[in-house]
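Notebook p. 47: complex prediction with FE2/S2 (inorganic) cluster.
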Amino acid sequence: MWTMSDDVTAVPGGPPRRTVLAGGGAACAAAVLGACAPTAEPARDASALAGRELAKAADVPVGGGTINSALKVVVTQPARGEFKAFDSTCTHQGCQTDRVADGLVECPCHKSAFAIADGSVKKGPAKAPLKEYPVRLDGDAIVGA
Ligand code: FES
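Predicted complex, structure tokens below:
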């Protein structure tokens, strides 16, 4: 039997329904006179990833990228030897991006897409870019800087 305490995901890859409802309610309460629209949680501080291995360089294709689901980071290589890292949390409503293809990081929930070079929005409904994290190459690994 389903109860309100069940952990139900509202959208595949997205936050649990309770999180969406709770977050939406808080946003609505705060926006007494404005429109009520759910927003993604703010991305974490870069220091949370400092010194942590985000990906092996060999696993990041030139012109593409790879998603580290455990750390919620997408690591890209827009040009040979140029590595970037972005928070994999979509800035629209907080789903996890799940695919890197054709130079874009894609969100499955509402099909937003972000550039692998700078995280900028290439296709909405997201309006804000993915948060970028500083990285460095350490041997064969891409590490948070
Ligand atoms: S959460 Fe809506 S496009 Fe990503």
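Notes: The chain is about 10% helix and 30% strand. The CA atoms of residues 85 and 133 lie 5 Å apart.
Next step: compare against the earlier run before touching the bench.
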